[in-house]
Design brief:
The complex is a heterodimer of chains A (293) and B (317).
Chain A lengths: L3 H32 L6 H19 L3 H24 L7 H23 L14 E4 L2 E4 H23 L1 H11 L1 H6 L4 H26 L6 H16 L4 H21 L3 H19 L11
Antiparallel strand pairs in A: 1-2
Chain B lengths: L6 H21 L2 H24 L8 H19 L3 H23 L4 H21 L1 H4 L5 E2 L8 H24 L2 H10 L1 H6 L4 H27 L1 E2 L1 H4 L2 H14 L5 H20 L6 H13 L3 H20 L1
Antiparallel strand pairs in B: 1-2
Helix pairs in contact in B: 1-7, 2-7, 2-10, 2-12, 2-13, 3-4, 3-5, 3-10, 3-12, 4-10, 7-10, 8-10, 12-13, 12-14, 12-15
Classes of the chains: A mainly alpha (293), B mainly alpha (317).
């Protein structure tokens, strides 16, 4: 006998968390798609976004859902700075150098956060934190629902930006072929800068969302970036529909494991690793195929 | 002349061996002996990471192998009272078995995919360890009997012997045909394949050698420290240390990982006193600085920048 209510509830929870995962992964997808770099420090940008949201709430009382834009702007500038001083000089280096550099940045920011803010896990409790939405047999936490909706909005904004605006279309062109883009007069250098900045801004916004539904601590970004890698591998590297697909698969799988396996919430933490390893073994270029090495 | 080693470096080696074996452990006080053991342990990790890196594979999950080695010897003592020295050996062997499995599955992957898989592998082990506490001891970790009843000088000799074995292995690899195979695979896998080198086979071999010493180091650590927890032995910090030290010193050389380890450990020890949390920030900074400004590490810096200064002087004088 299938318990439909619990099945639906579990599915719904999975979809909600998938929204957040998509927001977490979009910036990584953008940088990989446009610049061909797997940014290991993407998670730490999210972690910085989460802390900025936490401090804006704790010190100034600004609601995390409002400070989201502020975190985004702050991270945009941090991101462009990182690109200008560390990524730009190694754009033409072999991929392993880019891996090591961004890994170095990741370790640097993790430890900087430990030095500045200790290793405590911090939470934001807003006036609406405990509220939930009842829809007959299933119900949602209000905060999770809002983070899901904002993630959808962020995704739509990114898609519109990439398809309708001039700099967005330049990014698409560069991701197809950067030499040809340069030939037709696109400033590839500036496009990279903007892509990295936008990705960091997305990470900042995603970080603000993270701060409302999870603990904020120095390693939170690293944990999330491992999930994001899994999503990239499921969805094929560097494309947005694949990222959404991958987020759904991971979110729902984690939710089902959490519901139906004894002590499942602990095992769910390992799902992303298992999926990642299994998919890479079956299909070394990622499940949905890819155009980049 | 086909001698493997010149007379001069032979004398240097003998002097070094005499100092390290007879002189050093007697002169040093307990704290410095402990620090030396920690540095030798780190050197083993650094050199064995470098062996795999010679085939162009960047492992970011050495903690998986280190942790398996550590837990193998700890749990084997708990279950069947296997003597620590044999437990350490078992740790190395288990790490090799694991490396063969993972190697055949993932070493077909190139570059960044392999790196990501190794992180996932180490993190997955940490999750498994936390989830089956009946077998693994869970988050609380397990205690182990001290090595040689806590005799630090004997522990020093053991780690020195393992280190000597690692260095000798690296040296033998450099002198053998393996060196050509590893280098060819690193520089261009497709070309190596055409030349008749089977890349996967050599990569798995390099991974096995690397895993063996990393597992031994894990086993040693568990008995030397007398207590291990999954967060620590499977942790990202271990994997990062394994790669930062040889990269800092200079890749694909015998001396690079050794020098890199000494400097990184000294910096870390200094920071540990001043910064309670996050002293590993040095690892991140070193990685960024090395990639940006000194791609061949300290050894490269020495060869390119500093050595020419001396040569110029002597040729003028």
């Amino acid at each position: 006998m299938v318990d439909w209510a619990s099945l639906l509830q579990s599915l719904a929870n999975g979809i909600l968390i998938a929204g957040l995962y998509a927001a977490v992964t979009l910036g990584l997808t953008l940088v990989l798609g446009v610049m061909g770099i797997v940014n290991f420090a993407h998670g730490e940008l999210i972690m910085l976004g989460a802390y900025s949201s936490f401090w804006l709430f704790t010190l100034l009382g600004i609601d995390p859902l409002l400070s989201l834009a502020l975190s985004g702007v702050l991270l945009f500038f941090i991101g462009t700075g990182i690109y200008r001083f560390t990524i730009r000089p190694i754009m033409k280096d072999p991929p392993l150098n880019q891996l090591l550099l961004t890994l170095g940045l990741s370790i640097f920011f993790q430890n900087l956060a430990m030095i500045l803010w200790k290793t405590d896990s911090r939470t934001i409790i807003t006036s609406y934190s405990g509220m939930s939405l009842d829809l007959g047999i299933i119900h949602f936490g209000l905060t999770r629902m809002i983070t899901f909706l904002i993630s959808v909005v962020l995704t739509v904004l990114l898609v519109v930006f990439l398809s309708k605006t001039k700099p967005g279309r330049a990014m698409q062109a560069v991701s197809e072929n950067n030499t040809a883009s340069w030939l037709i007069g696109i400033n590839v250098e500036k496009t990279y800068l903007l892509a990295f900045g936008v990705a960091a801004a997305l990470a900042g916004a995603a970080g603000a969302l993270v701060s409302t539904v999870m603990y904020t601590f120095p390693m939170v970004g690293f944990k999330l970036s491992l999930k994001a890698f899994c999503i990239l591998v499921i969805g094929g590297l560097g494309n947005i529909p694949g990222t959404l697909f991958g987020s759904l698969i991971l979110g729902i799988t984690e939710s089902f494991v959490g519901t139906y396996i004894p002590e499942g919430s602990g095992w769910a933490e390992g799902i992303s690793f298992v999926l990642l390893i299994v998919i890479l073994i079956i299909k070394p270029t990622g499940l949905a195929g890819t155009r980049r090495e | 002349m086909n001698r493997l080693i010149s007379g001069k470096s032979f004398i240097v080696l003998i002097v070094l061996a005499v100092v390290l074996i007879f002189f050093y452990p007697r002169v040093m006080d307990s704290y410095f002996l402990h620090l030396t053991i920690a540095i030798f342990l780190a050197m083993i990790l650094a050199s064995s990471w470098d062996i795999l890196a010679r085939t162009g594979q960047v492992s970011v999950g050495q903690a998986g192998l280190f942790g398996i080695g550590a837990y193998a010897s700890a749990l084997l003592y708990q279950w069947i009272h296997l003597p620590p020295v044999l437990g350490i050996l078992a740790g190395g062997i288990l790490a090799v078995i694991l490396a063969v499995g993972i190697g055949y599955l993932t070493l077909r992957l190139r570059g960044i995919y392999f790196s990501i898989t190794t992180i996932a592998f180490a993190e997955a082990l940490a999750v498994i360890w936390l989830m089956i506490p009946d077998i693994t001891g869970g988050a609380m970790g397990v205690s182990t009997p001290p090595l040689f009843g806590g005799n630090r000088i004997l522990a020093y000799y053991l780690i020195l012997a393992i280190l000597a074995l690692v260095i000798m292995t690296v040296w033998l690899i450099e002198k053998s045909r393996l060196n050509f195979a590893f280098t060819a695979i690193r520089q261009n896998e497709d070309v190596a394949n055409v030349m008749g080198i089977n890349p996967t086979r050599y990569k798995v071999l390099a991974f096995m050698i690397s895993a063996f010493f990393t597992g031994l180091a894990g086993g040693f650590y568990s008995h030397y420290n007398t207590y291990i927890i999954p967060y620590e032995v499977f942790g990202l910090n271990v994997s990062i240390a394994c790669l930062v030290m040889p990269i800092f010193g200079g890749l694909y050389t015998i001396l690079g990982p050794v020098i890199g380890t000494i400097l990184v450990k000294v910096i870390e020890e200094f920071l540990r006193v001043t910064v309670p949390y996050g002293h590993q920030i040095a690892y991140g900074l070193i990685l960024v600085v090395v990639v940006l400004f000194m791609p061949d590490g300290l050894i490269g810096l020495w060869k390119k920048r500093i050595k020419p200064l001396f040569l110029k002087k002597s040729s003028v004088g």
